[in-house]
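Long-time lurker, first post. I've been practising inverse folding by hand and with some scripts of my own, and I keep getting stuck on stretches where the structure tokens seem ambiguous. Below is the full token string for one chain I'm working on. Before anyone asks, I'm not after the true native sequence, just a reasonable design that respects the backbone. If someone could post their per-position residues I'd love to compare against what I wrote down in my notebook.
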């Protein structure tokens, strides 16, 4: 019995060691660099923070709490994008202004009555800080929030700081068309490719440098250390925090550009409401096996379509028997 317990303990420790090694963090995100620099660019300033649950350090501590506790930094306001500061709001649902119970700091909604910080929201703010993990796709709304916040910062003569984070698709993949005139919206706010191959900090520099704003803002990007363009998210060693309810894993960022736009049409399930968000196509009028054969006959490099039968729990096709393919 003692030998069995001893063996199990050794096995547990071995698994833990392998896990730690597999999760060795290879880069420093903007918040880690800011901490290393003793918050020097924020010292003595009244700070407003745009963030959500993805804004964390290497120990998964929220940037909200980090700045709230930082010496000589006064966190005076929070700003919530789509899904909210704490990530508890469903896609598309409006967000109201409230007080954060953990810090007592007021939280202003940037996905409700307004999507751009108003002059009133920015009162008594010296610097606006942005710390959100994006997924590298134009229609994901966080970069639209960043763009409008940069615009507001410029108009109100406020500094704008971006704590940079990796693009989970890496920095080499650039694909898709540019937005055509007359079709700009909150899900296509910027004239950039659909998959744009930049980090949020690089995109902010591009917005300022390419004069995408009527007037540039006073921008400072806290750059990452040791990040390389060839890295995908797994290469960084960072722990993925769901960027939104339907982007639960880092690999979800690869599937979002595949099916996200089709999902907006509402006539076919793309896995939202099932266990495979953005990883499938299904409807009542599709035959799974026939559809899979037809798509696999196209021999798309690196892509295989698996027949799938399902009944979504919510959203398109809720409670109906659907057939289709998993990508």
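-- Answer (accepted) --
I ran through it position by position. Result:
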């Amino acid at each position: 019995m003692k030998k069995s317990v001893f063996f199990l303990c050794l096995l547990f420790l071995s698994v833990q060691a392998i896990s730690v090694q597999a999760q060795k963090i290879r880069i420093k995100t903007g918040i880690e660099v800011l901490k290393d620099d003793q918050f020097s660019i924020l010292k003595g300033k009244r700070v407003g923070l745009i963030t959500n649950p993805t804004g964390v350090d290497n120990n998964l501590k929220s940037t909200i709490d980090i700045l709230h506790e930082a010496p000589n930094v006064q966190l005076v306001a929070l700003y919530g994008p789509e899904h909210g500061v704490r990530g508890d709001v469903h896609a598309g649902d409006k967000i109201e202004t409230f007080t954060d119970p953990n810090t007592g700091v007021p939280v202003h909604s940037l996905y409700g009555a307004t999507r751009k910080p108003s002059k009133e929201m920015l009162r008594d703010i010296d610097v606006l800080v942005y710390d959100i993990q994006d997924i590298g796709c134009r229609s994901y709304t966080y970069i639209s929030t960043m763009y409008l916040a940069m615009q507001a910062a410029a108009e109100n003569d406020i500094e704008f700081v971006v704590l940079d984070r990796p693009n989970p698709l890496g920095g080499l993949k650039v694909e898709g068309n540019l937005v055509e005139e007359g079709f700009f919206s909150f899900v296509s706010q910027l004239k950039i490719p659909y998959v744009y191959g930049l980090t949020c900090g690089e995109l902010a520099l591009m917005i300022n440098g390419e004069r995408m704003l009527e007037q540039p803002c006073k921008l400072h990007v806290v750059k990452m250390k040791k990040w390389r363009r060839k890295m995908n998210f797994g290469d960084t060693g960072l722990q993925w925090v769901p960027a939104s309810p339907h982007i639960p894993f880092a690999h979800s960022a690869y599937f979002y550009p595949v099916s996200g736009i089709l999902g907006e049409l509402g006539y076919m399930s793309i896995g939202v409401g099932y266990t495979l968000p953005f990883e499938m196509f299904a409807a009542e009028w599709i035959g799974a096996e026939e559809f899979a054969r037809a798509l696999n006959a196209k021999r798309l490099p690196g892509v295989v379509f698996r027949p799938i039968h399902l009944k979504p729990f919510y959203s398109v096709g809720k409670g109906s028997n659907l057939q289709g393919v998993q990508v």
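A couple of notes from the structure itself: The helical segments are 2-22, 30-36, 63-69, 142-155, 200-209, 233-236, 252-263, 288-296. The CA atoms of residues 275 and 312 lie 8 Å apart. Happy to go over any region you disagree with.
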